[in-house]
Amino acid sequence: MDAQPPKFADLRVRLVSAIVLGGVALLMIWLGGVWAAALIAAMAAAMAWEWRAITHCRGAHPGAGGIAAAGACGTAVLTAEVLGPVLAPTMLAAGVAGLAAADLMQGRRTSAVWTIAGLTIIGGAAIALLALRNTEPHGFISALWVVIVVAGADTGGYFAGRLIGGPKLWPSVSPKKTWAGLFGGIALAAAGGGLFSWATTGTYYYEVCTVSAAAAILAQAGDLAESAVKRHFGVKDAGSLFPGHGGALDRFDGLMAATIVAAVVTFWRGKTVFIW
Question: Going by DSSP bridges, is the β-strand pair 174-178/168-170 parallel, antiparallel, or unpaired?
Answer without folding.
Answer: antiparallel
